[in-house]
Amino acid sequence: MSEQVEQLIKKEYAAGFHTDIESETLPPGLNEDVVRFISAKKNEPEWMLEWRLKAYRAWLTMKEPDWAHVHYPEIDFQAVSYYSAPKSLADRPKSLDEVDPDLIETYNKLGIPLHEQEMLAGVAVDAVFDSVSVVTTFRGKLEEAGVIFCPISEAVHKYPELVKKYIGTVVPQRDNYYAALNSAVFSDGSFVYIPKGVRCPMELSTYFRINQMNTGQFERTLIIADEGSHVSYLEGCTAPQRDENQLHAAVVELIALDNAEIKYSTVQNWYPGDENGKGGIYNFVTKRGICHTRAKISWTQVETGSAVTWKYPSCILKGDHSIGEFYSVALTNNCQQADTGTKMIHLGKHTKSTIISKGISAGRSQNAYRGLVRMGPSAAGARNYTQCDSLLIGDRCGAHTFPYIESAHPSAIVEHEATTSKVSDDQMFLCQQRGLDAEKAVSMIVNGFCREVFKQLPMEFAVEAGKLLEVSLEGSVG
Amino acid sequence: MSGEFQQAALTLAGAQHFPAWLTDARAQGAAVWQGLAWPTRKTEAWRYTSLLPLENAQWQPAQARQLTDLSELVELDAYRLVFVNGHFAAHLSTECPAALVRFSEADSAQQALIREHLNQVADQQQHLFAALNSSWLQEGVLLHLGANQRLDKPVYLVQVSDQADAQAMNARVLVVLESGAEAELLEHFYSTEADDKGWMNATTECVVGANASLRHYRINLESEQSLHTGGVHVRLAQDARFNGFTLANGSRLKRLDYHIKHLGSGSDLQLNGIYLPRNQQRVDYHTQVEHCVPHCTTTEVFRGVIADSARAVFNGRIHIHPDAQKTLAEMSNRNLLTSDQAQVNTKPELEIYADDVRCAHGATVSQLNDEALFYLTSRGISEAEARVMLSFGFVNELVEGVALEPLQQWLRPRIAQMFGQNDQLTRHIIHD
Amino acid sequence: MLKINELCASVEDKAIIRQLSLDVGPGEIHAIMGPNGAGKSTLGNVLAGRPGYEPTAGSVTFKGLDLLDMDPEIRAREGLFLAFQYPVEIPGVSNMELLKAAVDARRSHAGLSELSAIDFMKMAREACKAVDLDQSFLKRGVNEGFSGGEKKRNEIMQMMLMEPSLCILDETDSGLDIDALQVVARGVNAMRAADRSFIVVTHYQRLLDYIVPDYVHVLANGRIVKSGDKSLALELEAKGYSWLEDEVA
């Protein structure tokens, strides 16, 4: 069991616990008072509190899922602390010299500029450097276009009608155990609204939401693309992220109204634990989007982090002619475990979905693709194409494929292909004969293997993602 | 387990007539199933198939019955053993060599062999119905060939049923092939009456020794009202070969499990299957192939044509254990839905713990190709006949792969008739 | 350039090369011919350091360095190039990407700075032109979906870019029609230089009409059984190999 959890468990459960609105962190434990406390801290209106409480009550009746191909010690949800205010400047490292040198080395390998390193590592610097002005220009442009991009806690106050109308409509409170937990205690996250017919003038990136760092644990994101609008959203960054909270349970809801398009790209690089599997983040994520008529949602993810990943970005293709896409690279090394994939639920006529999944397992890791393609009884003329490939590096890892295909319409066409192979000796030798060392050769072959997915990412992101795989694979070849 | 069903199961297990030397095997099976949780729709292996038809009936042991009509048998020069409602019918069976014997007739050496292997191939913890089968053991069939032995004819085991009431039958087969032995075995299940309501629970265990070869055919064409549970469990030793073919229509409940283990390097598995449910029928194939050692090969091909309001399930799993390097494994599952109400759930799984392997699987669900349909009709063929031809064409490759020629000839018209009852529609296929 | 001294090598514990000696001076072209199974391809693979091709005795020096002591990528960076008999496909990795990485590795090994992307692109385009490959091949996956002839020309194109000092052509002519063969030969001839040597392994004399060797060696049973000049190749063409095998026996 990880030290963090262990330590938390050692702490005595504070029975008869009282809510103190002034306190900055809560002792471990979850009950209605905790939910009320979180809501009160954020000054939330009554309806939001009620919504959270409803989720909490649902959560109490639910069971943690056990069907995924992952193993980890049982989590004591009463041993987790559900609220902590962002660290004050005084508690943060004064300069990069105080930050873990391993982390800095990785930043350097990824080519992250110094001031960004400071920001990522949470160094207490005066926020006057370039990025602030970048953020300001950025906000100006968005306002001009009528795009709303703000923390969801802010949206609850400023745009209550929108939040009320859409929150929980794609991922209901009791959708699953972790979603219910998130609904009860979510910390913060992004809110995006693109008005009718607007093409968002730039990629929206969580990176620019620097004031919102440290909201990782129970993040909640809601993106609404109104009719005919278009948005591309980037989540995460390639820099390794550490967090003192081991348990992460995020929820992302996307709503693409008629003719709208949402492109959601993620690079996930949470701390995966050390090479013996000690420490590391448990990442249990629920991501789902709904497509109305002729709308399109495209998920692209590059997953390299976390000790345990449980994540299935999905599309409900409700409207006729709507399109869902899922492009994924999931790399596991050392003792990491990933169970990830997608669900494409075809309800509308002539709906289309594409799934391209590339799993890479190295070290002693376990990497599973789990996907569902469901052609409902009304999905006339619907189509799905799935290609799901696994690459093995080393003989102690595992690669697994669990595709569920459910078809209830004769004119729906589903095609699924999967392959598993290893980096071949011949490929390695050809690269070496051309002067490349083994590590470079592997990283080149792996990047080639992932190309189809990388080309879905915004240009700059794609380059970084390639480097990230290289760094993540270090030490995986003899 | 539902109380009523458990009661029925206990009653069946309480049968008085069984050879005393099977007592241990029965007790072992009973202990396993009584300790297992009864599957519900939340049990992954039963996600798409309901056991309600089984739970909602009052099961009684099946009664023997006279039967004279053999017109539905495959015309095959074979060593034949026929069972009617689970009871041996001597007058319908042929003389058999010593290698083929019923449990009740086994000599002491054969008894020892049966006791050695029974319950050792089928993993009862994982296969509830195999455990139930063991606990009800009264009779069974042993096929045992010594080193390098080969029979001059195939073996043909027939299970016929025709029961107006909820009566349960148990069938058990054990095949033991010693090194270099070769055999061909056809298991045939059918109903003589359209309203046969019987439940057959049939378990087959095969031990295929080093360099031995078993060709196995299992034909399940029972009535729509009948229930069938069971499976074929195989252990392959070094360089052993198992060539399997299975065909099934659907019924109220039909669940077939194939579980094959590669335990010796160089072994080869070829498994082909066809499922053709129509009307309200259900059919559920679960296959598991485990590669435990290096250098083994698996090729698995299943095709289904699902008509009317029928539902089919295919769950194929290939599991490569850590030491099974140099494995080559391929699995393909293709489905054709020919009506608006037809449904299929398919799940081709790979679970891989070794790196130097080449594995691939593919699954498709589609309808008849409009262009092909048009091509045929433009040549003057009626649309109805064209549909039958294309449906048959979808599975034809696997039918042609049936090496036992008389069986292939017997299958062709029967499969064709499942696509089109009218002779006019099937004549071109039958006279191929 | 290359000194092979009583080299023995085996594949899967089977001795293939038996006490083979060969001296290749700067600027020379040596042709190695021989019947199937003589060990021709094994020689190239042993020199390039392919895993599984184990030298068991003898020594090889390359530019005065102990070749057998080096990892395959170091041999490549030192200037040893093997044009493969069966170039492997690497889906998803573009030719361009591989070449840039390869050239960079060779240059940085030699203490030179990396080429700029523009300069490199220019060189790569020229190399393509020299072997009649369309420039689109640079963007395609390494050998992915290439025809046999395209794969061989791709090898020569890579050879040109890497500017090696010793080129080993392993049956580059096998399976080529005459036009493609001429393209390959033209590429090789264009690269002839006083400080660059070639070992051309071939089964057929035909290639030597286009690439004129200084020496011809016949390999049989893992050793060189006869050496001569170009005329030896013609003799072999006329008489086959069996007379040599008899002679040795």
Could you characterize the architecture of this molecule?
Chain A: InterPro entries: Fe-S_cluster_assembly_SufBD, SUF_FeS_clus_asmbl_SufB, SUF_FeS_clus_asmbl_SufBD_core, SUF_FeS_clus_asmbl_SufBD_sf, SufBD_N. The complex is a heterotrimer of chains A (478), B (432) and C (249). Chain A is an alpha/beta fold and 478 residues long. Chain A has a domain of 311 residues. Chain B has two domains: 365 residues, no CATH class; 62 residues, no CATH class. In chain B, strands 1, 4, 5, 7, 9, 11, 13, 15, 17 and 19 form a ten-stranded mixed β-sheet that branches. In chain B, strand 2 and strand 3 form a beta hairpin. In chain B, helix 2 packs antiparallel against helix 5 and helix 6 packs across helix 7. The radius of gyration of chain B is 21 Å and the shape is globular. Chain C has 249 residues and is an alpha/beta fold. Chain C has a domain of 173 residues: 3-Layer(aba) Sandwich (Rossmann fold), CATH 3.40.50.300. Chain C contains nine helices and twelve strands. At the A-B interface, strand 17, strand 18 and strand 19 of A face strand 19 and strand 20 of B. Strand 19 of chain A pairs antiparallel with strand 20 of chain B.
Provide the descriptors you would attach to this structure in a database record.
heterotrimer; B: 432 residues; alpha/beta; ten-stranded mixed beta sheet; 9 helices; 20 strands; globular; C: 249 residues; Rossmann fold; six-stranded mixed beta sheet; four-stranded antiparallel beta sheet; 12 strands
- Please give the count of helices of chain C: 9
Which CATH class of the domain at 2-89 and 164-248 in chain C? Answer: Alpha Beta
Number of helices of chain B: 9
Second CATH tier, the architecture of the domain at 2-89 and 164-248 in chain C: 3-Layer(aba) Sandwich
Morphology call of chain C: globular
**Topology of chain C as a string of helices (H) and strands (E):** EEEHEEHEEHHHEHEHEEEHH
* Broad structural category of chain C: alpha/beta
What oligomeric assembly is this protein in?
A: heterotrimer
Domain SUF system FeS cluster assembly SufBD N-terminal (chain B): 16-155
Pfam families (chain B): SUFBD_core, SufBD_N
InterPro entries (chain B): Fe-S_cluster_assembly_SufBD, SUF_FeS_clus_asmbl_SufBD_core, SUF_FeS_clus_asmbl_SufBD_sf, SUF_FeS_clus_asmbl_SufD, SufBD_N
Protein name (chain B): Iron-sulfur cluster assembly protein SufD
